[in-house]
Amino acid sequence: MKGGGSLKVYEAIALGAKELESVCPNPRLESELLLSHSLRIDRVKLAIKRDEVLKEEELERFLKYIEKRKSRIPYQYIVKKQHFMGFEFYVDERVLIPRPETEILVEEALKRMKSGDLILDIGTGSGAIAISIAKLFPDCKVYAVDVSEEALEVAKYNAEKLGVAEKIIFIKSDIFSNIPQDVKFDLIVSNPPYIKKAELENLQEEVKKEPILALDGGEDGLFFYKRIIPDCKFYLKKGGRGLFEIGYGQREEVEKIFLENGFDEIEVIKDLAHIDRVIIG
Ligand code: GLN
């Protein structure tokens, strides 16, 4: 892409937007966001700088970000952040980018918590769920586990950055494998990988840049529900709950797994698109 010697802020936005036209549905917005990231300022400040000429290193950074975005790297991996539950999480290629739908899971978990509760988050990734719960519920302790050492590094970094490291215990664990047998939880939450193997290749290019480990739910997409739910009984207190995010069309099957494993009072919460999104047993 040609940057052309010097560019003013408004010209850079237009150039970026043009370059991103074929890549994303909101090229102007993303161009503005990438430019404000290059200038290390808030997007709202772009307006007052409209006619300022970009410094050489600012233009260089901006063009580099635009190139990355053109190669379908998600915007969040370029700026290394994503907002979730009002908090700013650091993200990179080691973790799934937290999705807005997952905020429903956090809200439903918070509604059911009481003082002193012990929570387990399975497959914590960036730590989005565990850290949001620790931030928003004053008196609780959270265990956050992930099979990926790399993901745990990101989650620990976020816990430090957001000031809740002392409320969370991080363990490298394949589901329950390394959780001490004598620890019992009030609530087990998870947003497990739930995409069917056959659908993985049809995903948007951006999603393909996310860790496959965080997406692949096996042949039927239910692999992790089948592994997690039956063992919950060994780790839940009496009357404890399991609360999981599910994918489109998975409600009936996951409900069946719950019922077959001694859970009752199954509740389902829909997302804004009216898709069954969170299931609670
Ligand atoms: N718990 C993390 C999230 O919801 C990661 C989930 C995953 O990697 N499947 O964002």
UniProtKB/TrEMBL annotation:
GO biological process: methylation
Residues reported in the UniProt entry to bind substrate: N191, P192, P193, Y194
UniProt-annotated binding residues for S-adenosyl-L-methionine: G123, T124, G125, S126, G127, D146, N191
Enzyme Commission no: 2.1.1.297
Keyword Transferase: yes
Methyltransferase small domain mapped to chain residues: 102-199
First-tier enzyme category under EC: transferase
Any one GO molecular-function label of the UniProt entry: nucleic acid binding
Pfam families assigned: MTS, PrmC_N
Keywords linked to the UniProt accession: Methyltransferase, S-adenosyl-L-methionine, Transferase
Catalytic activity: L-glutaminyl-[peptide chain release factor] + S-adenosyl-L-methionine = N(5)-methyl-L-glutaminyl-[peptide chain release factor] + S-adenosyl-L-homocysteine + H(+)
Segments forming domain Release factor glutamine methyltransferase N-terminal: 11-79
UniProt xrefs under InterPro entries: DNA_methylase_N6_adenine_CS (IPR002052), HemK-like (IPR004556), N5-glutamine_MTase (IPR050320), PrmC_N (IPR040758), RF_methyltr_PrmC (IPR019874), SAM-dependent_MTases_sf (IPR029063), Small_mtfrase_dom (IPR007848)
Entry keyword Mitochondrion: no
Role according to the record: Methylates the class 1 translation termination release factors RF1/PrfA and RF2/PrfB on the glutamine residue of the universally conserved GGQ motif.
UniProt family annotation: Belongs to the protein N5-glutamine methyltransferase family. PrmC subfamily.
Protein name from the UniProt record: Release factor glutamine methyltransferase
